[in-house]
Amino acid sequence: MMHLPQWRVLRDGDADLVLTVAFDPGRGNANFSDLARCLGGRRVLEAVPRRTTVAALRDEGVDGYVAPWLEAVKEHGKPVKAVLGHCGGDSLARELAIGVRAWGLGEPSLMTFDPLVVDGSVLVEEYRVAVGALVAQLTPRDLEPALAAAESHDPASAAGGSDLLSLAETLERAYRTAAAAACRNVSVAPAVQQQLCDRFSAYLTYLAAAARARSAHPSAHAPIATTVLSATADAGPRTADPCGTITRFAVGPDRLLGDPEVAAHVSRALSG
């Protein structure tokens, strides 16, 4: 089996090549691994989120963020049948599908699952969750500036351009400062602190890249028709407008990728 560090093998079949884009799911939530088990003899790969920083994203742009994934697919040598994206990864899945076509690596269909519009509010929300996990290890003096970094966000700005990257860089720096204080207060090894910070930077950069990808292709990013699969319980205000056919399933968002009816629907679509 060819080793592709930019991709995680979810199912090692010989039939169609299917690419998926999602960040690590919440604990207990269904993910693309659950869906892949129901997709017959297909080879299903999941993009490994880039271990990078917001500053690097500012320099390389969304094309540069996606390029290593495409390089690895090119090395794989098998045409891409479909690209699947989940939640905030839907716009990166679209960017990837556009790149696959532009690089001559296939003519993939595009499916997104509970697509989410990523904006500055999403970045702030995820930052607060990350800082919340450190609260028990932070003194009030450490916690105050960490919370202040999120309070300074203007929800009317930072949709997907340079303002959003500036916000992401502010949150990235604030988290590193808070994590350093938390690790110092409980005598955690520097390597563990680095791991915590690098993971959050990678997640923040992934979200920022998703927001930039969406803003780069307004009006639901053009020219690839999308099949949208959505949980009926998912009707949040930031849910992306469908840019193709939409099918709803009587299942909660946390179980959408593990639902048998969803898997059957995807399998039929891939066989069409």
Quick structural overview:
With 272 residues, the chain is of the alpha/beta class.
Plain-language structure description:
Helices cover 47% and strands 16% of the residues. The protein has 272 residues and is of the alpha/beta class. The chain folds into two domains: 7-117 and 218-271, 3-Layer(aba) Sandwich (Rossmann fold); 120-214, no CATH class. The protein has a seven-stranded mixed beta sheet, with helices on both faces. Helix 3 (90-102) packs across helix 7. The model is unreliable at 218-222 (pLDDT under 50).
CATH class of the largest domain: Alpha Beta
Q: Please state the CA-atom Rg, rounded to the nearest Å.
A: 19 Å
Q: How confident overall, as mean pLDDT?
A: 86
Distance between the termini: 28 Å
Major β-sheet strand ordering = 1-3-2-4-5-6-7
Q: CATH homologous superfamily of the largest domain - what is it? A: Alpha/Beta hydrolase fold, catalytic domain
Q: What is the name of the CATH topology of the largest domain?
A: Rossmann fold
Beta strands, count: 7
Shape: globular
| H/E element order | EEHEHEHEHHHHEEH
**Beta-strand level of the residues, as a percent range?**
15-25%
Low-confidence stretches: 218-222
Helix content: 40-55%
So how many helices?
A: 8
Structural class: alpha/beta
Reported for the largest beta sheet, the result is: 7 strands, mixed
Per CATH, the architecture of the largest domain is 3-Layer(aba) Sandwich
As for the number of domains, it is 2
